[in-house]
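Section 5.1 Outputs to date
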Amino acid sequence: MSDGFATRAIHAGQEADSATGSVIVPIHATSTYAQDGVGGMRAGYEYSRTGNPTRTALEECLAELERGRYGRAFASGMAATDAVLRAVLRPGDHVIIPDDAYGGTFRLIDKVLTGWGIEFSPVRLSDVDAVRAEIRPETKMIWVESPTNPLLNIADIAVLAQVARQAGALLAVDNTFASPYLQQPLELGADVVVHSTTKYLGGHSDVVGGAVVTSDEALHERIAFLQNTAGAVPGPFDAWLTLRGLKTLAVRMERHSANAERVVAALQSHRKVSKVLYPGIAEHPNHDVAVKQMRHFGGMVSFLHADGEEAALEVCSRTRLFTLAESLGGVESLIEHPGRMTHASTAGSLLQVPGELVRLSVGIEDADDLVEDLLTALG
């Protein structure tokens, strides 16, 4: 019998330490390991860029939570993204990305990978026919965010997995916004999952990291080679902090989602909000797909201010509990203006976001306090 999600989050890869009985995985703060004779490695460890016991525990837990066979931890979400793209794509290849992709992913592909001969097409991934129309013989990957950042569009992962398979391409899913508690893309047919563990997995805004999970052995070997060769690995304390965060992921995501629903209800009825973007509401164009593939709808909410960009900027400066800051997924609530902050790199491109857009990362504070804070800021 398979253990439930919360049980796996607390126990997977985290057996009591064999030397001391410690119930918490130790922080192995070492760069190298004694060998029992030349090549006689103890438990397979020789150098901490290549492998570290604390990192191994995190990687095993991540793989279990995403229902994958292999997990690899990275120093940031962008390092994880870079590893997946470089493991799959070669000069002359083509990748399809969301037309509202995360600004950092867009910047990496548009400003770096294109210099090495990679081509890309931004597409509204909820439009499957539009995705099919963009597929070329050179298409090797469809890169999915669902929900997307910051417009919270939903892609049908199972359908896109079929489209990718028919095209001979891989389906990669950035599962950062949902977390494996709300959505498990590998179970829906994806080939590989990417996370910024900085966000919901770490959950406390105190560590930066990334992760890649897959069940494809050949793909895993290429990613593992890049992880070691390029060396963008987390230190043992970063791995330990992320592992600690995973233990409470299930209960946090329940509260994030419940609080977000309260915030959405308040925003929907406010005269200065022209539109609320949240996959949990019936008006969302991809609501039915979200219901099908997600447990709940998450803690990310975006809305359009009826009075335009300057009014949106003013709201971002007026909140008391919602801290004006980039990032997301921590226990505390955050507010930001994507057009001037996280998605500034998309200005002037097909991925430019509306100026009147405000993005919220709804934390786990008391919902009544969060609603009051937003209503006061909106005026």
